[in-house]
Amino acid sequence: MSRPTIAGVARAAGVSVASVSRVLNGLPATEEMVERVQRAVDELGYVPDARARSLKVGRTFQLTLAVADVGNPVYVTMMRAVEEVVSAAGYRLVVTTTGPDVVDEVALVRGMARGYADGLLISPLRVDEDLVKSIRECEVPVVVAGNVPAKAGVDTVRANSPKGMLLAVDHLVAKDRRRIAFLNGPADTVPGAARAKGFAEALKAHNLEPAAVAEATDFTFTAGRAAAPDLPAGGFDAVICANDLLAVGVMHELAAAGLEVPADVAVVGMDDSELAEQSFPPLTSVNLGSAERGRRAAELLLARIEDNERAPRRIVVQPSLSIRRSTP
Amino acid sequence: MSRPTIAGVARAAGVSVASVSRVLNGLPATEEMVERVQRAVDELGYVPDARARSLKVGRTFQLTLAVADVGNPVYVTMMRAVEEVVSAAGYRLVVTTTGPDVVDEVALVRGMARGYADGLLISPLRVDEDLVKSIRECEVPVVVAGNVPAKAGVDTVRANSPKGMLLAVDHLVAKDRRRIAFLNGPADTVPGAARAKGFAEALKAHNLEPAAVAEATDFTFTAGRAAAPDLPAGGFDAVICANDLLAVGVMHELAAAGLEVPADVAVVGMDDSELAEQSFPPLTSVNLGSAERGRRAAELLLARIEDNERAPRRIVVQPSLSIRRSTP
DNA sequence: TTGTACGCGTTATCAA
DNA sequence: TTGATAACGCGTACAA
């Protein structure tokens, strides 16, 4: 005894399949028709098959969110925001992890052609020609949370890293910290490149030289710890890290070296994720608007699904600084 | 110009649709046939439609993982393990958040009947009759990561909280901490109930009385901070927390009260998530085998999809203790 | 080995 | 308003 189909319901109710479909979709029907169909549906426990429906209407009512690392708390913030918008619009959200390699991202975008989902929201770590091309050629609408060349002609929502960097440096300088170091993630990533540039600019705006710059192999806690020794001990009184995970990693190493935060070294993270609040001491962090970026990106995606001819939009979300106890 | 279908490919290659399908699915065909089909496929950029395929074969090759809170780092551990097993078997993983309410869980399980996915892996926070019933009646295979009555007749993978508690208490007692407090999450949840019971038993095994017991409103960092004051200041020299997030919340409050960890108070978490390593001081935590539970649960789900008649299995994963600096 | 034709469960078009 | 029927794109008996 397998699942009842619409035909079964029609038979049980003594009406046509078309009528059942109409009642189920709220199209005009007589009082009595609705009544009969409803009863048959309840009796048989009929549930419409999403697969068949998808085939017919050409939509899955499913959207994909692709992030590089589910372990990065910034993505949970973004994911929550996206989920909220998307489910309010009647879509389910599929969360996928791509890993750090651009080839995986490309494979994912190409795979969208199979019609698993009605749209893709991707936050790529690395971007190359192949990825831009695959996005442009993608069968379903794509929105990028991150930076991608304007000529790609794709909807984009991104953070303003340079401005965020400036907020961080302003704050540190106001607290009399002038020997500022920078721990970046991989510079060959989109956020890595943006933050390196932003850091350089922000220091220049204050007529300062970088006290030190190091680069972690990943945007992870472990990579942060591993890279911390690359910053010359005692050579800086403040360090800005490219994200919160790196910052927490650095704080562990500073503690191990007997340095106090913020007395000896002030630490600033970026993303203002839940981890910033949870770390000890709580981490001053640049809020790059991950929740808002998620929300706006989701809205953009829904709008494009509605109308694929609209001109691509490029939204920039402004940062703010969440000051906590890791800075004086 | 819409997507090419299998019919288009057949026309372009001058063969039948059946032959195209066969070649694509690796069924026997002549060298030349394969060649011709392949060329046509490449030329047209044909990609099989997952929707149509799903309808025909009655499978989506999609599995759903439902967790209560994506912000809880224990789930990223589990998710990673599940993803690994599942993708190796050719399935995609859909991650869904249910929230803390059992009604949402029930709605989710019921919704599986629509055929969105071929199986469900759920880690329910709260379990009631409705949930058990919906799981038993579910159209697709369900595996529960957590505790559910044996009479539910469902595959289950769960942790051994009492044993884990005992490991924690053993460790603390060995370090001469005998005034042990316990911060639980909501006791009306499955893990909350298990841990409360485990704590009581473990203390009894050592002939100890609880120094204090409190209950947070959620298994979150914020709830942990809020509940910490419910433990009598100075009344305990060790505290076990029902998960890592609560433990980190407590450590923040202890610090605010001027107490040192572990000198004044030893702190033990549960889950041994990434957060335990990231917290400061690093958190001693009971490893309840979340990665292994995820892996085993995923394997169970795949096995049941393969053969729905097999007898339900109930797997218990044994805990271990990861000792870090939050205990002496 | 290859081709024809049907069915998967649904929605949408057209007559009645 | 309702009912019969043609798609949607694919896999697969069955026949050739």
Automatic annotation (TrEMBL), chains A, B:
Alphabetic keyword roster: DNA-binding, Transcription, Transcription regulation
Q: Which PROSITE patterns match?
A: HTH_LACI_2
Gene3D superfamilies with a match to the protein in the record: 3.40.50.2300, lambda repressor-like DNA-binding domains
Which SUPFAM superfamilies does the UniProt record give? lambda repressor-like DNA-binding domains (SSF47413), Periplasmic binding protein-like I (SSF53822)
Name by which UniProt lists this protein: LacI family transcriptional regulator
Q: Which residues are in the HTH lacI-type domain?
A: 4-57
Per the record, the domain of life is Bacteria
Pfam families per the UniProt record, alphabetical: LacI, Peripla_BP_3
Q: Coiled-coil region(s) at which residues?
A: none
Q: Which organism is it from?
A: Kribbella speibonae
Q: Does the keyword Transcription regulation apply?
A: yes
